[in-house]
Amino acid sequence: MAGSSQQESFISKGTFKRLCLKKKEEDRDVYRWAELPVDGEVYKIVDSRKVRGKFGDCHILTIVNKAGGESKVWAPKGLQREIETEAIKTNPRSIYFCTLGQNKKEDGSGHLKNEYESCYR
Fold first, then answer.
1. What pLDDT, in 10s, does the model give residues 66-79?
2. How far is the C-alpha of 113 from the C-alpha of 121, rounded, in Å?
3. What predicted TM-score, i.e. pTM, was given to this entire model?
């Protein structure tokens, strides 16, 4: 029976609710770029997870500072491109960055641009 095997691989309502709740909790723990302190702190990207956000594909970064404090943050587009470029290399390097906060774009739109400096090791 084709319907039987399809039903066996389908999740229950309870499992669905648990998975949705887990995803919401994970997403709630992700900082916006503007929430990172602009204090000269250097971060290392230890993981990058590509997800579908409300503005299209984006990356959620797991980052650590020198003291070992771990956080998650939504990556700005420029940093996402750097991650994708580095990931396809045979020997990808670690990416470090320092946030410079947000500045208004010069196109007069009033939109904010996430600023950062980055380097590789």
1. 999 999 998 888 89
2. 26
3. 0.70
